[in-house]
Design goal:
It is built from nine helices and nine strands. By secondary structure, it is an alpha/beta fold. It has one domain: Rossmann fold, CATH 3.40.50.1820. Strand 4, helix 1 and strand 5 form a beta-alpha-beta unit.
């Protein structure tokens, strides 16, 4: 990697959590790495309208034994917007992830996706069987039939950026009833453009609408771990069982967790991921 490919934003040892910007053809991508570089690699991909910061509570629990890589998808967090709307499409975001990992010299990963991030890592496995050794999906809806969140008009392009209250209304179904939307996630969404929020959501729906995830994952043929909160208010919690159609899939339901157990229940989520990665990380 040349200096023009990676711009350091933080420096430190193997466990220091260095952040950097990769200069890629279709937009600059922000990457953060934690844990020893020679340890088995875990790729963590966030959902729509957030960034790699959403994994903050989980990373310390994973980084003692793994090289943890967080990538802000294009249009999210500290990554640039794609050069055009095609860059928000799930296969294009997956290609960006693959290019970023190649630039970092990562040869194998267990790819973990939260919510719509699960579509990005599935598409990555479809494209790069050589790179992805196993997949873990956290509250990723298996098909559009499982979507239960009410349609919302809270976000208005004429009143952008939205107020804190509007963001809380929009994001409330992302957590179990009564859970306060974290301040950093409010800031993340406000920092995005209306175009990025809506284009990313449309892209995820389009990818899922083309083919349900269990069918895609069966074709991929990689080991699969599914984690689902039983209080999810965006996807029907019982739909987690749809993933049992994937040969060998492990499905774990977290009692009392909503759509975002990576923040609501980090210890229980990390324990499941670590046990799965111990079997499949290289």
């Amino acid at each position: 990697m040349t200096p023009s490919d990676e711009h350091p934003e933080a420096r430190g040892g193997a466990g220091a959590g260095a952040g950097s910007t990769l200069r890629l053809e279709h937009g600059d991508v922000h990457v953060r790495r934690d844990g020893p570089r020679d340890a088995p690699a875990l790729l963590l991909v966030h959902g729509s309208a957030t960034s790699g910061r959403s994994w903050g509570a989980l990373v310390p629990l994973l980084a003692a034994s793994h090289h943890v890589i967080r990538v802000d998808l294009l249009g999210h967090g500290r990554s640039a917007a794609p050069v055009d709307d095609r860059g928000y499409e799930t296969p294009e975001q997956a290609r960006t992830l693959g290019t970023a990992l190649d630039r970092l010299g990562v040869e194998h990963v267990v790819a973990v996706g939260h919510s719509s991030g699960g579509y990005a890592v599935t598409a990555l496995a479809e494209q790069r069987s050589d790179l992805v050794t196993a997949l873990a999906l956290i509250n990723t809806g298996p098909s559009m039939d499982a979507f239960i969140a009410p349609r919302t008009t809270v976000l208005d392009p004429a009143r952008w950026p939205p107020t804190d209250e509007r963001i809380r209304q929009f994001a409330s179904t992302g957590f179990r009833e009564g859970y306060d939307v974290p301040r950093e996630l409010i800031e993340e969404l406000r920092g995005m453009t209306y175009q990025a929020v809506t284009a990313a959501a449309r892209a995820a729906s389009a990818y899922l609408g083309q083919r349900a995830l269990p069918a895609r994952l069966t074709a991929v043929g990689k080991p699969l771990q599914v984690i689902f909160g039983d209080q999810d208010r965006r996807w029907r919690p019982s739909s987690a069982a749809d993933y049992r159609a994937v040969p060998g899939a492990r499905v774990d339901v977290l009692t009392g967790a909503g759509h975002t157990p990576i923040l609501e229940e980090p210890s229980r989520t990390a324990a499941l991921l670590l046990a799965f990665a111990a079997l499949h990380a290289t």
